[in-house]
Amino acid sequence: MPERVFHFISGLPRAGSTLTAAILRQNPRFHAGMSSPVASLFDHLIAQVSAGSELSTMVNEAQRARLLRGLFDSYYADYAQPVIFDTNRAWTAQLPALMRLFPEAKIICCVRDVAWVMDSLERQYRNNAFEHTRLFNNAAERATVYTRVEALANANRLVGFAWHALREACYSEYAERVLLLEYDLLTARPGEVFKLVYDFLGEPPYPHDFAKVEYDAPEFDAQLGMDGLHRVRPQVKPQARPTILPPDLFKRYAQLAFWRDLKDSKAFRIVQQASAEKQSETMPEPEPAIAPEAAT
Fold first, then answer.
1. Could you tell me the fold of the domain covering 5-276?
2. Which residues of the chain register pLDDT less than 50?
3. Residue 6 phi, psi dihedral angles, 5° rounding
4. Can you give the pLDDT at residue 2?
5. What's the pLDDT score for residue 285?
6. How high is the pLDDT of residue 187?
7. Cβ–Cβ under 8 Å, residues 177 and 107
8. Which of 96, 111, 110 is nearest to 174 (CA)?
9. Are the CB atoms for 31 and 85 separated by under 8 Å?
10. How many CB atoms lie within 10 A of CB 134?
11. Which of 11, 85, 90, 289 minimizes the number of CB atoms within 10 Å of its CB?
């Protein structure tokens, strides 16, 4: 049996990672899903054998690599597909270790205007008004839309961590392994976008059905107190709507789409044109140009 191929899905929350996985899994060669526990296990295993632990002198570098690779092999042992996509926002912060284990791996990083990421999370919060979601640590964080967004934007929290880790990956020595995939283009033109995704992966094209996409994880979402967080609509298409964020809050976070004008990075991009980056408080129309591009 040929060696299994591993690729990764990462990037910002509420930016299409579950949708991307749901589309990919239509291909019988691929397995993909929502966030797996492998990244957390990966980090904890490294911590257990790092300097300062009693095990650090008992496990050499080659053994560490085998143990880490064994996490993937063990977790996905029951899946028959030859190509595995593991999803986690933490992978963009683990590229040096990840790429040493899987030097041919690619990482699809889903991106979306941060203002709309915050809007989507706030909308989920309001849709679950009778829950104290685990996204927030205390009543002070949950108090208002301003405190909720500020908490999520913290550098070690859901959105802030993902944004910083993504930026690190784009300027790392492994940036040529990174594909930035923008949510608005994915939903507006999925056929064209996925042709480019397959080109990036070096995989033969597959006739995906973008009108019959399926994914849901109700048990996982229930334990977060966020029903519907990983539910994918059957048809891939834009969902026009006004934002529910206050105008000043939307404007503040609308300035953070650094991937629109990514200088000095070798990351590939399927994103809207930087020249058209004019934020509005209704869902923007995607730009007509679409092509992966190594930013210079």
1. Rossmann fold (3.40.50)
2. 1, 276-278, 283-291, 294-296
3. -115, 130
4. 58
5. 45
6. 94
7. yes
8. 96
9. yes
10. 10
11. 289
Sheet with 5-11, strands from edge to edge, namely 30-32, 83-87, 5-11, 107-111, 178-182, 268-270
The domain locations on the chain are: 5-276
Q: What is the pLDDT of residues 175-193, one digit of tens each?
A: 999 999 999 999 999 999 9
d(CA 247, CA 30): 42
Tokens 């891939």 belong to which residue? Answer: 236
- Report the mean per-residue pLDDT for the chain: 88
